[in-house]
Design brief:
alpha+beta; five-stranded antiparallel β-sheet; 4 helices; 352 residues
Length: 352
């Protein structure tokens, strides 16, 4: 969460004298001048990638998985690998050092409220900024899952088997018996039917637990650990399938320069949502500056597979405009609300 810095700053609200006018200059002023320095943001594309680190432990009877249970492609060797799970992409605002402005304070002026983020990005003038409320999910107590020992379900005959092959054969028969018992319950053909629905659910759950535990003695177990990585990109131009990061099944998320992973490409297309004049960058600073953000389409691919595609505001593809100084040289109070993520205007209103 952003820490709000509350600064009481004079924005030159004068009554009738021409000597006290709102004066805004680019850059940070020093020396005898007093005032407020604020910054407009530029857009940063944040790519949050969730991956699973999977640790595979082979079952005790993995070599008999195909023979007795028809489980194909069961490996007898332990393995550790990574899987891409999901991806979210959003635009966020970071301070733009090239868009820093200084509001000079003068005598005989009213001192309104100017609210900045902890990074110095302007949020509001003469009015409190209220961020959109986020609903807090109800807290829940984590449920501890009991690790089932499959040997707790083995019969005396299985445990007394004189060879591994014989034990595997007897366990597979026990698995098939469990399946037959479950099917008989579901069809209402069991010798001892449950008294009600709750008892039925309990019996079926117990049978499924036994089958899963005993089957894992053949198929092995997969321990999954979820991790999240954030890749940040501050665009200064359009991108056409440029490498943004790399992914390796053995190593996970890697930097874009690490050739050990498969490249993940980003394409950034300016949608030309803002009409930018040719002499825009030579525009003279006049009044309180704000951004008019552009928009872009972001596409992320892994080979031919599209992982993400969507539109978002990109300040670098927009322009900078200014609120007329005359707005702040009246007896009435002008309230201004900015979007701290883009530096764009949300609302301007006058209070008499």
């Amino acid at each position: 969460m952003k820490q709000v810095i509350m600064i009481w700053a004079g924005l030159m609200l004068c009554t009738a004298t021409a000597s006290a006018q709102t004066e805004v200059t680019a850059g940070v002023m020093r020396g005898k001048d007093y005032g407020v320095t604020y910054t407009l943001p530029k857009s940063e594309i944040r790519i949050e990638v969730k991956v699973n680190k999977v640790t595979y432990t082979p079952g005790e009877f993995s070599r008999y998985a195909d023979r007795y249970l028809r489980l194909n492609h069961v490996s007898g060797e332990p393995e550790e690998y990574w899987e891409l799970k999901s991806m979210t992409v959003q635009s966020a605002g970071v301070p733009d050092s090239e868009k820093t402005y200084f509001v000079k304070l003068k005598d005989k002026t009213v001192a309104p409220l100017m609210e900045l983020t902890k990074e110095g990005i302007v949020k509001s003038i003469n009015m409190p900024y209220s961020s959109p409320s986020k609903s807090t999910p109800p807290s829940s107590t984590p449920v501890s899952t009991r690790k089932v020992n499959p040997k707790d379900f083995l019969t005396e005959e299985i445990l007394m088997a004189n060879s591994t092959a014989k034990m595997a054969e007897l366990i597979s028969k026990e698995i098939y018996n469990i399946r037959e018992s479950r099917n008989a319950l579901m069809r209402g053909q069991a010798d001892y039917m449950p008294a009600d629905g709750e008892q039925m659910k309990l019996m079926l759950a117990n049978l499924e637990e036994q089958e899963r535990a005993m089957t894992e003695m053949f198929s092995g177990t997969h321990h999954i650990e979820e991790r999240a990585f954030v890749i940040r990109v501050v665009p200064d131009r359009e991108y056409d399938e440029e490498v943004v990061f790399r992914f390796s099944r053995k190593l996970g998320i890697l930097g874009k320069e690490d050739l050990a992973g498969e490249p993940i490409y980003i394409t950034l297309k300016d949608l030309n949502a803002v009409d930018i004049p040719e002499d825009d960058k030579k525009k003279k600073v006049s009044g309180v500056a704000y951004n008019v953000p552009g928009r872009a389409r972001v596409t992320i691919k892994q080979g031919t597979q599209q992982l993400y595609s969507g539109e978002m505001p990109i300040t670098q593809f927009g322009t900078t405009e200014y609120l007329a100084p005359a707005l702040f040289n009246k007896k009435s109070t002008v309230k201004v609300l900015f979007n701290p993520e883009t530096g764009g205007l949300i609302k301007v209103e006058r209070e008499e």
